[in-house]
Amino acid sequence: MEGQFTIGPLAQASGVNVQTVRYYEQIGLMPAPHRSEGNQRLYSKTHVDRLAFIRHARDLGFSLNDVRELLELQDKPDMSCAEADQIASQHLGEVNRKILRLQALQTELSRMVDQCAGGAISNCRVIEILSDHTECVTEHTP
Fold first, then answer.
1. Which residue, of 14, 43, 45, 122, is most buried by count of CB atoms within 10 Å of its CB?
2. What is the pTM of this model?
3. 3.10.129.10, 1.10.1660.10, 3.30.160.390, 3.30.190.20: which CATH number matches 4-79?
4. Which residues of the chain have pLDDT under 70?
């Protein structure tokens, strides 16, 4: 049948593995596929497109809950996109906060490495700083 895929070709076409397809079905991100007379799952191009959407959203770091909400919005094409914008804006805020934390980590680790003279462990600045958090000059807790 043209336009129908079994799970292996579906996974390959969408860039996810078979276990991921099954998981997304189990948690309701993917609609149930049609079944053949032999009870084999048969997926359509719509399934491929939906998996591609999910994969892209996950690659951009959206949570599964965010993906679920975005998929629900996608299924209502005449709605305002304000809610989708809000989800993306909240995610962007989280990404910006992570970047700031990572920059603080980078600063602290660079300082730690730069202060290490490469001598004995008993005089190692890396070990000293890791042993005493008050030696840190930046706030870098997760």
1. 43
2. 0.78
3. 1.10.1660.10
4. 1-3, 140-142
